[in-house]
Design brief:
By secondary structure, the chain is α/β, with parallel strands linked by helices. The protein folds into 3 domains: 38-67 and 193-254, FAD/NAD(P)-binding domain (3-Layer(bba) Sandwich), CATH 3.50.50; 69-190, FAD/NAD(P)-binding domain; 267-381, FAD/NAD-linked reductase, C-terminal dimerisation domain (Enolase-like, domain 1). It has 12 helices and 20 strands. The chain has helices spanning 8-22, 26-31, 83-86, 103-114, 134-146, 238-254, 282-288, 303-308, 336-349, 353-357, 367-374, 378-381, and strands spanning 41-45, 48-51, 54-57, 61-63, 68-69, 81-82, 95-99, 118-122, 150-152, 155-163, 166-173, 176-182, 184-187, 191-192, 225-227, 267-269, 274-278, 292-298, 313-320, 326-333. The chain has a 5-stranded parallel β-sheet with strand order 6-13-7-8-9. It has a 5-stranded antiparallel β-sheet with strand order 16-17-20-19-18, sandwiched between helices. The protein has a 3-stranded antiparallel β-sheet with strand order 1-2-3, with no helix packed on it. Strand 16 (267-269) and strand 17 (274-278) form a beta hairpin. The longest helix has 17 residues, at 238-254. The chain is globular. The termini are far apart.
Length: 384
């Protein structure tokens, strides 16, 4: 039997096909009464935008223009690419350096490693994924390292040299100068909305680290302008963008009646296995002074995981000390994207460990292990 062969052009074509299929058709929007212009919009004045020669007036305006990758101001940065380009390269790279160990960098690292590339990740922080507790992040890193991904942590990239296809990445790690050679270097150090992308830099819009500064009703510093999604500068996730879009539209039309609820936002990073979180981490709970109990557990032994070969993982739970109500969950699991939504519902509903202990779970399933750990095993695991 011949070994499987990677068909990169087919993968790229399928990506384009899926994106096109999921994009809402213009005709559907127009059936609901919206007029759609397809083109690059630029502000002409605070109430007017130009799109391919057409001038569009808006009494209220919502900016939902997405964000752009951040490219660090280092020497030779023109040799690198961003995640926007990485997924659509004309040829599959045999070696890849990713600058950044956040969500984007790790998703790209996992995907290209799974497809056969030699992947190296350069992380500025001492541990990957600073939004997670270090022990959870370290568990995932160890699993990715076992699959072949190489990490350089506590490192700062100083420049790129060479040429496309043969790039040398220079970096400093613990005061020692080092370098790596690779076919492709991808910057994955975050995304930010830039007012210059819409010609809006003269409108007086206040910005924050990620995008526009907004009120709870998603109104910007310019009274008639609202923002949603990455441009709003809150949480850069697809579901939060959809939620903010609805809230911003309602408030722009009806007045500021609805506040965006971003209090319980589940997040998954699609590595192999996945890593996910919802609610405060243990570190965040301590920083906020929340009295809490903590439970950690290895997720090995889930019946479905044993059957499919996707066994293993790590679970970390934060409970409110007085009530044993679940307030925060982090996990590494092959089913994290599904399980974290179960956890989010539990947090929103104020579920306690005792309540979970009465819930029967499906067998076989990955959720079976989560419910057992969060429920009747809790009292054996929690520590003050």
């Amino acid at each position: 039997m011949n070994p499987p062969r990677l068909d990169w052009p087919a993968i790229v074509a399928r990506q384009h096909e899926i994106v096109a299929r999921l994009r809402p058709p213009t005709e559907k929007l127009e059936r609901y009464g919206a007029r759609v212009w397809l083109g690059e919009a630029r502000f002409q004045d605070p109430h007017t935008l130009a799109v391919d020669g057409a001038r569009i007036y808006g009494e209220k305006i919502i900016i939902a223009a997405g964000s752009a990758p951040v490219v660090p101001p280092i020497e030779g940065r023109e040799l690198g690419i961003t995640s926007d380009e990485l997924l659509f390269l004309p040829e599959f790279p045999e070696s890849l350096v990713l600058v950044g160990a956040g969500a984007i960098g790790l998703e790209m690292a996992g995907a290209f490693n799974d497809l056969g590339a030699r992947v190296t990740v350069i992380a500025r922080e001492d541990e990957i994924l600073p939004g997670f507790d270090p022990d959870v992040a370290a568990y995932l890193r160890a699993m990715l390292e076992a699959q072949g991904v190489v990490f350089h942590r506590g490192a700062e990239v100083t420049g790129l040299t060479g040429q496309r296809g043969r790039i040398v990445t220079r970096f400093v790690q613990r005061e020692a100068a080092r370098e790596i050679r690779s076919a492709v270097v991808c910057f994955a150090v975050g995304r930010r909305w830039d007012p210059r992308s819409l010609g809006a830099e003269g409108l007086g819009l206040e910005t924050n680290r990620l995008g526009l500064t907004t009120s709870p009703h998603l109104r910007t510093s310019v009274a008639h302008v609202y923002a949603a999604g990455d441009a709003a500068g809150n949480v850069q996730l697809t579901p939060t963008a959809a939620h903010e879009g609805r809230v911003a539209a309602q408030n722009a039309v009806q007045g500021d009646r609805v506040a965006a609820d971003l209090s319980i936002v589940p997040q998954t990073i699609f590595t192999t296995p996945e890593i996910a979180r919802v609610g405060p981490t243990h570190r965040e709970a301590q920083r906020r002074g929340i009295p809490c109990h903590l439970a950690t557990h290895d997720m090995k032994g889930a019946s479905n995981g044993v059957a499919t070969g996707e066994d293993g993982g790590y679970l970390k739970l934060v409970f409110e000390a007085a009530t044993e109500r679940i307030v925060g969950v982090q996990m590494v699991s092959y089913a994290a994207a599904e399980l974290i939504q179960l956890a989010a519902l539990g947090i929103r509903a104020g579920v306690t460990a005792d309540a979970l202990s009465t819930q029967l779970s499906i067998h076989p399933s990955q959720a079976e292990r989560f419910i057992k750990v969060a429920a009747h095993e809790f009292h054996e695991l929690c520590e003050l």
